Amino acid sequence: MFIAFYHVPFIKTISMANIENQIFSSYQRNPDLYDEIYDKEGKVKEIYQKLFEIYGEHTISDYVNLNSKAKSSFFNQGITFQVYGDSNVQEKIFPFDLFPRIIDHKEWDIIERGSIQRSKALNLFLWDIYHDKKILKDKIVPIDLITSSANYLDQMNGINPPGGIYNHISGIDIIKHNDGKYYVLEDNIRCPSGVSYVICNRTALKKALFGVFNHYQTYSVTNYAENLLELLESVKPKGVDVPNVVVITPGMYNSAFYEHSYLAKTMGVELVEGRDLFVENDFVYMKTIKGPEKVDVIYRRIDDQFIDPLEFRPDSALGVPGLFAAYKKGNVTLANAPGTGVADDKAVYTYMPQIIKYYLDEEPILNNVHTYHCSRPDELKYVLEHIHELVIKPVDEAGGYGISIGNKLTKAEIEKVKAEIKENPRKYVAQPIMSLSVHPTYIDETESFEQRHVDLRTYTVLGKDKEFVLKGGLTRVALKRGNLIVNSSQGGGSKDTWVLKK
Amino acid sequence: MPNQYNITYRTENTYENWVNDAYWQFLIIPMENNTQHHIDVEFSNSLFAVNEYSINGYGFRTIRVHPKKKFKKINFEAQFSFIKDHIDPFNFPLDINEALAYKEINELTFKINFEAFLRSTPLTKLPNNVDSIFEFNLSNTIFENLQELNKWTFNHLQFKTGVTQVDTKLTDIISAKQGVCQDFTHLFCAIARQNGIPTRYVSGYINQEHGLLGDSQMHAWAECYIPQVGWKGFDPTNNILANTNHIKVCHGKDYNDCSPLRGIIYSHGRNKTTHTVKVQSQEQ
User: Fold this and answer.
1) Which of chain B's residues have a Cβ under 8 Å away from the Cβ of A157?
2) Cα A90–Cα A92–Cα A95 angle in degrees, nearest 5
3) How far is the alpha carbon of B254 from chain A, nearest alpha carbon, in Å?
4) Burial of A125 (0-12, 13-18, 19+ CB in 10 A)
5) Tens digits of per-residue pLDDT, A61-106?
6) Does A147 contact B119 at a Cβ distance shorter than 8 Å?
7) Has residue B92 been placed in a domain?
8) Cβ neighbours of residue A137 under 8 Å, at least 6 residues apart?
9) Residue B94: pLDDT above 80?
10) What pLDDT score does A131 carry?
11) B237 & B264 share domain
């Protein structure tokens, strides 16, 4: 069933009092939190007014109805994921909320320029630490930070990746703090995932509430795949005219398999597993029913240690034997390049302002959250004494695993965390607890809108001399009340994210 | 005087059950360097599978084999012939400024340039509380200290095969006081690195005609970077400096970077592998 909204007469002034906004009638606003749609006085912000009005025309039961339809459409399309560490492994739907998040073009401009700046700085940083290591010699970044990282690959030293690009795809996690400013929480430059949800969220919202798009000039997000393909083709190996691009996946049991297949399908390229490829005379080929077909660019969604069992983990059944030799000889492009993980280490994150300044001679456009390094004795002391007001993160885990939030811990838990930090200080960093902005989010249990914390993951693609930022990104919602961790693997949901043209 | 060398490397692999798919990567070809040249390689396997010449992640030459049919037995044979120039390990400048050399190894740029060979790896990690480990005497030259370390390692361990595995940790080697060339070399590397000397693990062959200790498979020794001198080879298994009898294949941080054979076998059940290496030389 398809329900569309027709043109609603425009109401000039809207305030909480004079509109009987049914679906928001029980919305409780905590004034200490930064609400994305209400200002401090409790007025709906201008960019949200129209949306507020349209949604307000309807009852909560209309909304419930639409939401459940959207949900089943996700399930029917197979847009699911799995949570690791859950003993009942099962396919779950990434919960989706029909009330979108809106970002105006001025704020977006900051986010976009900031994302490009960070991605470029990280790329230059990676080139440097796998070549002359000037930033270490100039004592901007300490040498231990790099060489004690499990993601630093000695084999990458001296290799010039095609087009000079290491982090082709960067997923930058950004939040808005209660000071109204954007802060970067993490740079994900190994295999950042989630972009397929951005596009599916848009599709689902268009299906459910097509009419709302008539009132806003929103940038499209469906152009991601074509831009990704174009930029991947721009970093083709030397001597190749029209590169053959493939997406390699660990397989259908991977939590992001839906996305791997989605990206291959929308780019119009083959989705392969390790066993579909082979290396001969240092070139990579794909097995096809018509015989071998040379492969030039591999968008790989397999971690470094698993890409080639002859070079890295010998027990990997996911990779392609001989792939790294083909890469080292410049016969194939791997995106992202092996060894990029060293730069998304959370301890390197803390040096990002200096890294940006060093390579680009620019001030960071996006803020960094102040970080304490447990490897430094004086900072370790501070962290141990202030755990209750800090977030403790392991430096090398992704997906929100292993994070402790100080003010949510019991006394016994604090002692346990302290012991873990003391055991291996290099493994942990700590940051002040940031107050993520909140956004009205439909909650199933109470059948009403409630404030929930949100963040934003942007997708930046670097190619040879060009770059692209997806105008939208993934707004992730922490569905549990008061929860600050928004990763899908930690039970988060998501919203469609609109970037306005003007 | 240069030597003409001929090396034969053979390995026989038998499997209880059919092997449906397998990959091998051999890291056994003598490297081309300023004392080893005119290297001629012949390689064959009993299944007549294609032998692909390639490189590993550190740029050393490899041979890869991927048979296209199932098998229960496969043999490989490699023949290398090449010229090895005479090496006088003591032939290096004598007017070294030692104060400057010690200063250099403590500089950040030096530590960054040689970082990979100063880092401790799982196989070259010394136990925390070990007594009576060799210590550098800073009033001696770096070279003298390394020679002493070579001697100390040679005396500390007894050469004995079958006691340790390729992945035995130093803690166990130090307490057992026994091992083979890999273990001697890992211990030497660990202590030299702890004293700030960039040290690399070297894999290669040894000419046993002169009664030197080694393995019937491959030998291991170490190379240390000495400021104003360059890389120097130390063979702690024999308490000598690397010379004309040492034929280098590759180097790395430890055995794991240099493992002569990596294989991925898709089969189950027992298997048996034997290796033999024959080194023959002829002075020219």
Assistant:
1) 116
2) 165
3) 13
4) buried
5) 888 888 888 877 777 776 666 555 545 555 666 778 889 999 999 9
6) yes
7) no
8) B108, B109, B112
9) no
10) 97
11) no
Q: Which secondary-structure segment (H or E) carries A81?
A: strand A80-81
Instruction: Determine whether the interchain pair A139/B56 forms a contact, defined as Cβ–Cβ distance below 8 Å.
Output: no
Closest Cα in chain B to A152:
B116
For the whole prediction, is pTM greater than 0.95? no
Query: Using 50, 70 and 90 to split pLDDT, how confident is the model at A364?
Result: very high
Instruction: Report the CATH number of the A108-191+223-360 domain.
Output: 3.40.50.11290
* Vertex A348: Cα angle to A346 and A350 (nearest 5): 80
Check whether residue B106 and residue B240 sit in a common domain: yes
**Residue B103: domain span:** 98-258
Per-residue model confidence (pLDDT) at position B111: 96
Q: Examine the pLDDT at A323 and tell me if it is beyond 90.
A: yes
**Mind listing the pLDDT tens digit for each residue in B157-200?**
999 888 888 888 898 888 889 999 999 999 999 999 999 999 99
pLDDT in tens, A202-246: 988 888 887 889 999 999 999 999 999 999 999 999 999 999 999
Q: Is A278 on the interface with B (CB under 8 A)?
A: yes
CA A96, CA A100: separation in Å to the nearest integer?
10
Q: How many domains does chain B have?
A: 2
Are residues B247 and B272 located together in one domain of the fold? no
The residue of A133, A138, A154 whose CB has the most chain B CBs within 10 angstroms, and thus the best one to mutate to test that interface, is: A154
Nearest CA distance, B253 vs chain A (angstrom): 10
State which residue of chain B sits closest to A131, comparing Cα positions: B113
**Nearest to A459, CA basis, from A206, A223, A163:** A223
Query: SS3 for B211-231, per residue?
Result: CCCCCCCCEEEEEEEECCCEE
Strand locations in chain B (E): 3-19, 21-26, 36-45, 51-55, 61-65, 71-84, 158-159, 178-179, 199-206, 219-226, 230-235, 240-241, 246-252, 261-266, 271-283
Instruction: Kindly state whether residues B204 and B265 are assigned to the same domain.
Output: no
A154/B116 Cβ within 8 A: yes
CATH code 3.40.50.11290 region(s) in chain A: 108-191+223-360
CATH number of the domain residue B277 falls in: 2.60.40.2250
My answer on whether B50 and B117 are in the same domain is: no
Is A426 part of the contact surface with chain B (CB cutoff 8 Å)?
no
Q: Are residues B136 and B197 both part of a single domain?
A: yes
What burial class does residue B97 get, using C-beta atoms within 10 Å of its C-beta: 0-12 exposed, 13-18 middle, 19+ buried? exposed
User: Could you tell me if B270 and B218 lie in one domain?
Assistant: no
User: φ and ψ at A368, to 5 degrees?
Assistant: -105, 150
- Residue A301, pLDDT > 70, answer yes
CATH number for B124: 3.10.620.30
Range(s) of chain A covered by CATH 3.30.1490.270: 370-432
Q: Is B264 within 8 Å of A147 when comparing Cβ atoms? A: no
With CB atoms and an 8 Å threshold, state whether A147 touches B52.
no
Distance from CA of A37 to the nearest CA of B (A): 51
Q: Does A137 touch chain B (CB under 8 A)?
A: yes
B56 to A325: CB separation less than 8 angstroms, yes or no: yes
Among A136, A309, A325, the residue with its CB nearest the CB of B54 is: A325
What is A370-432's CATH number? 3.30.1490.270
d(CA A364, CA A181): 13
- pLDDT (tens digit, 9 = 90+) per residue, B218-263? 899 999 999 999 999 999 999 999 999 999 999 999 999 999 999 8
The chain A residue lying nearest B56, using CA atoms, is A325
Interface residues of chain B, partner chain A, Cβ below 8 Å: 23, 25, 52, 54-59, 62, 64, 66, 108-109, 111-113, 115-116, 119, 253, 257, 262, 264
Residue found under tokens 């459940």: A68
* Cα of A88 to nearest chain B Cα, Å: 30
Closest residue to B264, CB basis, from A154, A280, A309: A309
- Give the range among A26-30, A264-268, A464-468, B195-199 with minimum mean pLDDT: A26-30
Model pLDDT for residues B52-75, shown as the tens digit of each residue: 999 999 999 999 999 989 999 999
Pairwise pLDDT comparison (A416 vs A398), residue with the higher score: A416
Mark whether B270 and B252 lie in a shared domain.
no
